[in-house]
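INTERNAL AUDIT FORM
Audit reference: QA-55
Scope: verify that the stored structure record matches its stored sequence.
Auditor: D.O.
Record contents follow.
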Amino acid sequence: MFTSFKRVIKFGCQGFARNKGLSFQVIFIMSVGVLLVTSFFLTKGVSSFLMDEMQKRVDLSVYFVQEATEDNILEVKTEISQFTEDIENIEYISKERAYELFQQDNINDPTWLQALDEAEGNPLPASLNIRASNPNSYAEISEFLEASVFIDIISEISYNQEKNKRAIGRLFEIDSALKMVGTAFLLIMGILIILITSNIIKLTIVAKKDELSTMKLVGASSLFIKGPFLIQSILYGVTATLIVNLLSFTGLYLFDSTIKTWLLRFDLLAYFNANFLSILFLQLGFVVLLGIFATLIAVRKYSKA
């Protein structure tokens, strides 16, 4: 049994080495598939990072009228926290704290500081800064506040600003679009890998038709006939994966600083290295399994023992 297995591997390696032209075609299309899987995985990481960064910069602020008391505002805070489980944090900023923050933010702008000094008392309102895990929740919170009994003490809800609505809405639009496009390309590439690999294996089988017929006549098992072609398919996938990973690592290493500049300091090289085993598993799973499936389709009519 072990001897037969060694022969299957040997014949598979020989077939892989001899049919260089055909092997190159399969390796090329598989490399494109592996590159697509790799890009999809890395894009998912970049998308998650950018989503987190954008969510940190986008929140919902509720400003209150001057007459609103601290008890009123804390009551609103309690109601909002109980409204949805998506709330990550609600920060209460008193009028005094708002005054301090305004001075800190405009310390180098004497015009604003002078205007603040000339105002009677503290003109800055108290507010609640709300951060949610799901950006879609901001619209729901805004609608809840507008329809609540607290609307009389609310002077402004920042989510009502059109630019904030667009920024929040685009978060999920971009993420959803990337997932849809990536999935579509993976399906198309999977079909191409199956078709091309299957046709290449069929050509190899036709070239060895007499040899396969002789093997059947002498009682060779179905596994012995199919085995070398399956080994060839696995070698195609492994070779394609090695090539893509080598090129990916080299490219990420050479352009690391440029990529960080484009992606808000996101370290794509570190992300690639940290998730390499997961990426490798997906790459091999994608092309090797598709290659084996394509090979089984191709050899089915020729390997009946």
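Auditor finding: record pair retrieved intact. The chain has a mean pLDDT of 79.
Action required: none
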